[in-house]
Every structure is written in structure tokens, then in C-alpha cells.
Amino acid sequence: MTESLSGSAAETDVRHRVPIIAALMVLSTIAGAAAWISPAQSTPEYLSQFNQKYGTQGTKLDSCMTCHTSPSGGKENVNPYGTDFAKNNHDLGAVEGLDSDGDGFTNIDEIKANTFPGDPNDNPKAKPAPKPAPSSTTTTGAPFPFSLLPKFQPGK
Ligand SMILES: [Ca+2]
Questions:
Q1: What is the pLDDT of residues 128-142, one digit of tens each?
Q2: How far is the CA of 74 from the centre of ligand 1 (A)?
Q3: CA–CA gap between residue 99 and residue 80 (Å, rounded)
Q4: Residues around ligand 1, an ion, CB closer than 5 A
């Protein structure tokens, strides 16, 4: 029936196998890529603890770079803050008073200033004056009431 269209039996056999081989290659490539993309196992857990404790979600510190020297994380890429954090049984409170990166600012001061506690080149002093984040407690929302000032009279 189809023999006249598909040629020899060997050719037919190869044609049937090729899609399977291709599918297997694709699957193994995806599995390999997934293994490469997610090298950090425990870090996201610590990062979410960190964000919960300090309210840093969505800020610069909501990043692997808070404890690691590489955005991909990994045990071999831990910065001084991550090292102290690990030494103290991953107790965030225990390392707050330390100055892990030795830049003169304690870890908690850096976290409050949204600077990396494990990077001596990033600290509250290196930053331009830390602007307080706009919050509901600020009372300076209204414009200055110029209309209440005495009128400016030129020549007097
Ligand atoms: Ca510091």
C-alpha cells in the first residue's frame, strides 16, 4: 500500500525513529538546562525569611546577591554576610550587630539603608543620602501654602 511512496523498509524505519530521537534530545536538553538554571537549593528559603523579617521584598536586597557574590548563588560564592549568616546557624538576628563586610556599618544598619551587608563598596555612606521611602506616616504631602505668606512687594 504505502511501499511505493516510502521507498525501502530501512528508510521507513529511520523516518519513524528520527522524531523519537529528536524528542529524547529535547527532553534531555530541558532537564540539563533546568539543572543549570537552579543551582541554589536552600537560598530562596533564606531569602524569603530575610524579606519577611526586614520587609525587603521587591527591594535591591530581595536578591541572591545579599548573601552571595554571584547572582546564581551557590555555596562557593558566599559573601562575608552570607558566611556570617551560615556560621550563626542561619539566624538573621544573630548577625544583625556584626559588620560582616568591614565597611564600618553594622549589617542591620545596611539592611535598613537598603545596602548590601556583604559588600564593603555598597554601604550607607557610599550611597547618596538615603531618602526615606514614602509611607503613609509622612505628613508632608500637601504643597507649601504660598498663599498664606505676606505678599512680596518690590522696592520695599
Ligand atoms: Ca557593613
A1: 555 666 666 556 667
A2: 21
A3: 9
A4: 99, 101, 103, 105
**Alpha-carbon span 56 to 97, nearest angstrom:** 18
Q: From ligand 1's centre to the CA of 27, what distance in Å?
A: 45
Q: What number of helices (H) and strands (E) belong to the chain? A: 5, 0
Locate cell 521584598: which residue? Answer: 57
Summarised one tens digit per residue, pLDDT across range 28-63 is 887 776 655 544 445 689 999 999 999 999 999 999
With 0.90 as the threshold, say if the pTM is over it: no
Nearest to 46 by CA among 89, 99, 102, 96: 89
Residue 38 alpha carbon to ligand 1 centre in Å: 28
Residues whose CB is less than 8 angstroms from the CB of residue 131 and which lie 6 or more positions away in sequence, other chains included: none
Q: What spacing in Å lies between the alpha carbon of 106 and ligand 1's midpoint?
A: 5
- Hey, where are the domains in the chain? 44-112
